[in-house]
Design a protein that fits this description.
single chain, alpha/beta, Diaminopimelate Epimerase, Chain A, domain 1, six-stranded mixed sheet, five-stranded parallel sheet, 11 helices, 40% helix, 18% strand, globular, binds manganese (II) ion
């Protein structure tokens, strides 16, 4: 579903004119971020472009099966820079935060249109869905490897086609990727349901601290928990998605401590409460049903502030209804 044919044609022309393309996504990439850059990269290589993918850090273990080893790349001379799944430029790897961004492709409603050409479709369930649409429109071939990566992006961002923003078009897009050689069961298992022993132990520590206050359910992952569990990633091992499946919660919150003075906070909403507003209150962003922010405070202070703001937001919201 093309939101803006003239922009997609301008993007196509910009890519056609470039020999080299650098693909960038947000720091601490999720499945949609990884799937979008790898899938788009594969397709553009097949189309004859020199492509490099720049990640800030080592990929989360569960996405490494896609075998993309390129990391921490500097921008290529004379090349163009395309960001995928990035709502704001300051969420890109350090080397790119001050660079001119040629093309910005994303599905976050909070996207700040920081690129020279911006293609933002907030109705798309995943950036990988948009990438698939664009490649199809441009008649650029999607190889089985590209199709797998893109399908992984759609599966992870929709938590297996379960989120509110999953549309008939999302399913058509997934079906098209399967026709191109993507393997549904394999992608589903590897990117969504498979779990390591370390991740399972981490869930154990975090779930042991699960709290319920009215319609809010929350828990904490501390640096200590990660150490005890032997979990080497800084991500939440997808615990956030589990929290959002708890029936009694209107809102679930995960406090993921990154260091003494930094906590990553994720909100999920099961109701009509828009948690992107809560995240942006703390300098973050996201979608109405799933949002996050990184807060530079101690775990205790973060928890106190976030719960306070979330509760009063819920209260105001209830009174409006
Ligand atoms: Mn996404």
């Amino acid at each position: 579903m093309n939101k803006n044919p003239s922009i997609s044609q301008s993007i196509r022309q910009r890519i056609d004119a470039a020999e080299m393309v650098t693909l960038v996504t947000h720091i601490r990439p999720d499945g949609d971020a990884v799937g979008s850059v790898i899938g788009f990269g594969e397709a553009l290589r097949g189309y004859g472009k020199t492509v490099q993918i720049a990640f800030e850090e080592t990929l989360p273990a569960r996405f490494r099966f896609l075998k993309e080893k390129e990391e921490k790349k500097k921008p290529l001379e004379n090349g163009i820079i395309i960001t995928l799944d990035c709502a704001e430029q300051n969420r890109t790897p350090k080397d790119y935060s001050g660079k001119k961004i040629d093309i910005n492709i994303d599905h976050h409603a909070t996207n700040t249109n920081f690129g020279d050409l911006n293609y933002v479709n907030a109705e798309a369930a995943a950036t990988a869905e948009i990438v698939t649409d664009l490649l199809t429109e441009w008649k650029i071939q999607i190889s089985p490897a590209a199709a797998n990566a893109l399908l992984m992006g759609i599966i992870t961002d929709t938590i297996g086609f379960r989120t509110q923003n999953t549309t008939a078009h999302t399913l058509h897009t997934a079906a098209r990727l399967i026709e191109k050689g993507a393997h549904l069961t394999d992608m589903y298992q590897r990117s969504l349901t498979d779990m390591t022993w370390e991740a399972s132990s981490l869930w154990g520590f975090a779930l042991n601290k699960l709290q319920k206050e009215g319609k809010i359910i929350y828990t904490v992952i501390t640096c200590e928990d990660r150490k005890k569990a032997g979990f080497t990633g800084r991500d939440d091992a997808d615990l956030t998605n589990f929290l959002s499946s708890i029936q009694e919660a209107d809102i679930s919150i995960l406090f993921n401590q990154q260091s003494e003075k930094s906590v990553k906070v994720s909100w999920r909403s099961r109701s009509t409460v828009n948690v992107a507003n809560l995240a942006s209150h703390f300098g973050g962003g996201g979608h109405p049903a799933a949002a996050g922010a990184e807060i530079e405070l101690s775990l205790q202070e973060t928890q106190q502030k976030v719960l306070e703001v979330t509760k009063s937001y819920l209260l105001k919201y209830d009174n409006q209804e």
